[in-house]
Amino acid sequence: MHRQTKLRLQLMLGTALLSTPVSALAQTAPSQPAQTQPAPAAAANAPVGLDDIVVTATKRETNLQDTPISISVLGSEALANRHVQSLMDLADGAVPSLRVATFEARQSALTIGIRGIVPNDANQPAREQGVGVYVDGVYLARQHGLASALLDIERVEVLKGPQGTLFGRNTEGGALSLVTKKPTGVFGMRAVAGVGNLDSYNSELHVDFPALGDFAFKVDGVIQVQGPVTKNILPGEEGFGQYDRRGLRFQTRWTPSDDFTATLAADIGKDKNTPFYSQLLNFNPNGLPVVPWTSTTVPSGSIRDLAPIVQVEGSERMTQADIGVPQQWSVDDTRGVDLHLSYRPNDSLEIRSITAYRDLDVEQYDNIAGAHRPPVVGPNGNFSRYSLAGFWQHQFSQELQAVGSLGDSIDYVGGVFYFKETVSDDASTPSTNRWNADGTGYTILDPTPTIRGFRSLDRKSTAHSESKAIYGQATWTPAQMQALHLTVGGRYTWDDKDGTLELINNKLPVYAGVTGELHFATSVDRFDPLVTLAYDLSDNVNVYGKYSTGYRAGGASSRSLSYRSFDPEEVKAYELGLKSDLFDRRVRLNAAIYQMDRTDSQIDFSYVEDGGRNTLDTMNAEGTTKIRGVELEGQFRATENLTLSAGYAFTDISIPDAVNPRTGTSQPVFIIYTPENAANVAADWSSPFMGGTLKAHIDANYADATHSFEQYAVKNDSSFIVNARVAVADIQTGAGGPLLEVALWSRNLLDETYVYRRDPANRNTLGDYGNFNNPRTFGIELRASY
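The structure assignment produced for this chain is given below.
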């Protein structure tokens, strides 16, 4: 950590090296090692070392290799190499311990997990995430809207393990921190235009305007469009798995003096999307007696046969639905404004303020399965469940930070945080189709029940949250032993939450014989400590041990019939880590081994009520869930042109049985979307080519099969995804002209097909149904920069 001590003041003032893409899959640019005398001739063509990487995981800019936290970083070049346009694209395994999946089949709500902390249905008003998502230090409280287009990201930092001290609220699994590019005050323009298969196209425009006095301005605009993965055969209706994302952001930075900066940013986004098709993977897997589809009744212990036109395709993704259904765009509208203030009264102190307001409006239309999921009906019966929902959220947050140093021995961060949120939702599930008498055809029902204002609401609820915190963290490096670094920190949090379930099945709730709205209210005070001891074995090798805690706030399930509240769940984590740059910094190897003990685990139990109502109860399980793991990341600059990288995550989970609140019996439960083994490898090539630069990238990503539901032992498929990109960059266009880059890219190059979400809940009435990953996508892209 000696390098960090020397750079501390520069980094705090933002004058250190710019971040470059790095992680287990990110390419770094060459850097020249310091030399006191000419290198021997034999070493003249030796490959140069890997660059330092700047991160902000400790609320100050530090060297990645000197930061005693398990962190993975994806820079802008790594994101471009993978053609990452939204957080959904990180589901391919870019960081082995980071897991991203859709909630149900919806592209509008993402489930994000780290190290086995993966909440399932956290898109309800009174439910919380287990991994905090931040954009420029602003906490995004909801799963909805997370698949919106990314706007000029400088880097993505994946902070693994509880971040309860500096990041706080709902970061028991870790934090996903997105850092955007800021105004420079120097004119620059970058434009991107591309086309691809599935009728896709994308375009970007990023303009840095020349400074106007003390003001700098920047504008970013993004459009991302893709056609359907599965076609809808009903004329005039949208297909499945398509999207149309658009985003715009404006930033201005005011620097009236060297010691004060104010940055104001405002953004707006519209994410139009349709769900992935949920298709039958099998029929009657339990081998029950089958009665004809035209039977008027189905005896107990039997199952109705499929209608003649229903297809079962369990091994391949359907490119065309067998039944046409009404389907329109789901729309996420996101808006936000944030003000960042920075004042540096002297070289050893910076005072910051982050003020932010965000709101989110969602109109959901998910007709995802036709006759491939309940309700299961026979002749002349209604079918095809149209999941309609509205979701409205607004949040305000204020954070004050003091980041500084006391002499050469102590670096510290302290602050206060305030957060307030109001969220409401409603949901309806009318059927849109009706069978004929023999199952060979169907008609479309009157659309009136699908229109807002005419819907019969399955549920309607509102929740409020308020959180206040004070935190501090300090690192002491003794003058007599500068290889030793002791970090101690803590955060005290006051959380208050309340909610109201206003309607169940379109009427006032009835619970325990009493009719009326259901309410809950919780208030929790807690302290989360952190202790880290780090030691520099040399200038380029350091080790650390860390203890920390984190939590996920409690709440209530608006999908339940009782609206019973549940308590926060807590994680205590122990971690040992190694960070090293070896062989003249040509090899970088980082490793971490950890154990997390989770108590009061929030476990979801879902079931389908008569009539097809999807009900979910959440309870705090007894006992301690133990999550143990190993994480490895490495890079090797093999030659001046070639960089190899790899990453691996092993996760072992021991989770006690839990009591199902519906049956009252104890049963095994599981952690979702967490593979036991996940790994990736990548190769990056860069060399001169016809006056420009030839760049080539390929990565391969593997993950074991995972669970989709905490209550079912059935697993999804394992996955193996390959992405690739080849580009000719730095193409000169003449004096004063832009530099051009032409690239060919492909995601899922080998067209791997696997089920990423499998639902076995209806094996006695139909069979498993599920969702497949995206097919191979590819395209050509042109980039121009001034």
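Interim note for the steering committee: The first helix runs from residue 2 to 12. The longest strand covers residues 484-504.
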